[in-house]
Automatic annotation (TrEMBL):
This is Multidrug-efflux transporter. It comes from the Bacteria. The lineage of its organism: Bacteria, Pseudomonadati, Pseudomonadota, Alphaproteobacteria, Hyphomicrobiales. Gene3D superfamilies: MFS general substrate transporter like domains, Multidrug resistance protein D. InterPro entries: MFS, MFS_dom, MFS_trans_sf.
Amino acid sequence: MSQSQHGATPAVDARWAGILKTGYLGQFALLCLGIWLHAADSLVVATAMPAAVAEIGGDRFVSWALSLYLLGSILSGAGAALCATAFGLRRAFVIAALVYAAGCATSAMAPEIMVMLAGRLAQGLGGGLLVALTYVAVQRLFPREMWPRLIALMSAIWGAAAFTGPLIGGFFADLGLWRWAFWSFGVQALVLAVLVPALMTPSTTRTVPSPRFPLMRLALLSASVLLVAAAGVTLSPATSLPMLAGGAAFFVLFLKNDASRGTERMFPVSAFSMNSLLGAGFVANLALGAAAMSLTVYGPFILNRLHGVTALGVGLIIAAESVAWSLAAVAFAGTGEAGEKFLIRIGALMILFAIAVLGPLMAGGPIWAVALAAVVQGAGFGMLWGFLIRRVVAAAAEEDRDSASAAMPTTQQIAFALGAALSGIVANQAGFTEGGSASMANVALWVFAAFVPVAALGAAAAWRVAKD
C-alpha cells in the first residue's frame, strides 16, 4: 500500500505512537524476522564453522562459505523488486523463507564441504531476498515520514544479531551440535513462511503478469561478484588486479543492460550517477560501505596477533560498532528534514574520520582508542543510513520506487563484497601472510589508510545527497 492509499491527510504522525496507529506494526515486526534470520546467520556461522570444518573437512574453502552466502544475498536482493511485482509481497516472502529453510537443512545435513557450500548459497538467496523485500514493504506500507523510524528498528535488529548470533553458534559448537545451529534457523524460517500468509493482508500485494526472468543480468552480476571475491584471496597482484578490473567491467555491463529494461529494471536508471541525488546516494552507499569493511575483516586478526586481545575482547569491539549503529539510528530517527541533512553530512564525516585514524591506532594502540573509533564509525552509519534511504527512494520516479528500495540494501551487500576483496589485496601486499609484529603493524596501517580516499568519495557523495 503506498502513501496515497493511506488517504490524503494533511499531516502524518511520524512519531512512534503514529506507527502504532497505522495498524501495520505487527506486520512490520513479522517481516523483521526475515532481517533477523539474515543478520544473525553469518555471525552464527562465524563461530560454528570451525567445528563444522573439523568434522566434514574443507579448510581451504572456509572463506567461500561466506562468499557464496554473500553472492546469493546480492543476486536475490537485486531481483527482489521484480519478485515482489511478479508474485506480490506475501508470496515473495513465503518463497524467500522456504528457500532459506531449504539452505539451512542442506547445510545441517552436509556430509562434506561442497554440500555445505550449496546450502550456504541457498541461505544467501533466501536471506538476501527477505531483507530486500522488507525494504520494499516499508515503502509500500508506510508513509515516507515514518521510514527513518522503521529503518531504525531494522538497524536495531542488526545490532541485536551482533551479540546473539555468535553466542548461538558458539553454544551449539561447544556442545558438539554445530548442525543444530543451522536447524534452529531453518525452523524459524518455516515459522515465517507459515505466518506471512496468515497475518499479512492481501492488500499489500500488487500481482501483475510476471516479467521475464533476468537471466543475463544476473549472470553479469554473478560474474562481477565472483571475480571480485576471487581477487580478495589471490596473493599475486598480476592475477588479482585483472580480476578486479574484470569484476568492475562486468558490473558496468550489468548496469547498462539493466538500464535498457524499462519497467523491469533492478536498479533505478540513474543509479551511481553523481549528477543526481539518487545516483549520489548509491555512490555514498557503495563507497562508505566498502571503506568500512577493513575493521570487520582484518580488525580481529590485528587486535589478536598484534595486541594480544582475546577473542571475547575482539568480539566486543566489533559488536560495539553494530550497537553504536543501532543506538544512533533509533536516537535520531525522529529528526526533521532540516536536521536530517545535517545528520547525513556529520555521519559521513564521522565515518571518514574513523577510517583515517584506525590505521595508526590499530598499529600502535591504545586499544580503548580503537574501540572508540569503532563506535564513531558505527554511529556515523546509524546517523545517516535511514535518511539516506529515504531521500534516495523519495527522489526516485514512481515506477522506480520498488527498485530503489530493494537496490539500496543490495548495493550495501555489493559494497561489503568489494571492501572485503580490496582489503584482502591490500593486506596480502602489506605482508599479512608473513606473520611477525612488524609485518602485522604494516598491515594494520595500510589496510585502513588505503581506504581513506574511498571514504572521502563516499562522504562527498553523501554531502551531495544532503545538498538538495
